Amino acid sequence: MIAPLVLAAVALAAAASAQTDDAAPRASVPRREQFRVIYEWNVIDYEWASAEDREIYLNTSRYIPKNVLISGINFYGGNLFVTVPRMLEGVPATLATIPVQQSDTAPRLRPFPSWAANAVGDCAALQFVQNVEVDRNGTLWILDNGRVGTLTQNPDAKCPPSIVLIDLTTGKNEMERIPLPADVINPKTTYLNDLVVDNRHDDDYAYITDNSADDPGLIVFRRSDKKAWKIRDNSSMRSMPEATTFRINGTVLNLSVNIDGLALGPPMLTTNADIDRTLYYSPLASYHLYAVNTSVLRNESLARAGQNALRSYVRDLGTKASQTDGMKMDAAGVLFYGLIGNSTIAEWNSTTDFRTGQRTIARDPTYIQWVDRFTFDDRGNVYVVINRLYKLITNKVSLDEVNYRILKSHTGSKSYVWAEEPAGARPVPGSAVAHAASWSLLLLACARVLA
User: Are strands 288-293 and 217-222 parallel, antiparallel or unpaired?
Assistant: First the structure.
């Protein structure tokens, strides 16, 4: 039974946890709901085809309840997509849905697109999904690492790391699999962690974090020709020694995890009247938030220019009070993120100075234990996954207590994918606007000839 708890948010906590500067500009923050628990589970279970199937999976260790953890979350239509990465054995399905509207406080997960599409060892199926995104066109972008058992002694690279696309608007849920080339990422060491999607007039791009222990970096994927390249920067993408120790509710663990969460800012107008956006990112083992313009990342030559090529373009925005896993930006440029060691959900309006503009919006050491991913629905609500990942890592998951929660708050926000472009942008060659302008000029020329 979910307790009718409203999680503590704010003003005093923000004053205690963030630096202040009376001279710094602060955008007004609308009145909003505090975060509340909408779903919680001691153990994650699935909608099985039959009770006999469940018993078979249990008896053959294809379903080990304490190894099943929710990580990513995204919204489309009447469903929340949730990811269940196969970090350990016994995860029957790695991508599933649950309803947005509550009918059960601990709903069973429905494998998506189907049970068959989640079969381990079938390279036409999903193997290890850490995160997904739904773009403004209704396309589901899925990161499939292809490698399972990442928390075991012998991870198994069963299939090539891939981007999988599903057009949700048709209802057919057909998967288009695009393997990422081995000269871009190493299938045996890569860990595709998070992604954002940039729907542009001329193309669609995805920016993806690879927090590989050996070769961390940002992968850029261009949809039109299915080309990918990887850009590296050791100074901003690798873990920092001073941030590798995590302390959560009496548990201490060391994690040297590289570039992890990322977020995409709203479109902005450049001096040349082009559209650009800012990509924000942080290693898990770091207190810093970094930023780089996406126009820089889309320059393929930087992937070939070596380790220092990106350095002059990266901006260190300042430090946070603790380490961050998941983060997401809304359409207005407000960043939502977790502070793991502080049991906190925070936000920052990107029009302000990061060093003085951070705000605590919820804090609770019982209900907020390891903030993972965020998503927004179409009614102004933000959702966040709390998954106590540190318990799974340290093999201390107890099925007698709540391990996973989804919290919700009405903020009036919508996802960054719906951010509007500023007025005054010049048309992109090949776009509908450019074609319309060309036809107008042609008609004008014809009129003059006929006059």
Answer: unpaired
Domain assignment present for residue 258? The answer is: yes
CATH of the domain at 141: 2.120.10.30
Q: Would you state the pLDDT for residue 259?
A: 98
In a domain, 2, yes or no: no
Per-residue pLDDT at 65 exceeds 80: yes
Q: In what order do the strands lie in the sheet with 334-339?
A: 327-329, 334-339, 344-349, 358-363
Query: Alpha-carbon distance 113 to 25, whole Å?
Result: 46
Residue 33 lies in a domain: yes
- The pair of three-digit structure tokens given for residue 431, joined into one six-digit string: 């776009």
Q: What is the number of other CB atoms lying within 10 angstroms of the CB of residue 155?
A: 18
| Res. 428: pLDDT tops 80 | no
Number of domains in the chain: 1
Question: What pLDDT is stored for residue 272 in this prediction?
Answer: 87
- Does residue 29 lie in a domain region? yes
Query: Would you say residue 443 has pLDDT above 80?
Result: no
State which residues form the domain around 39: 11-420
H or E stretch at 315: strand 315-319
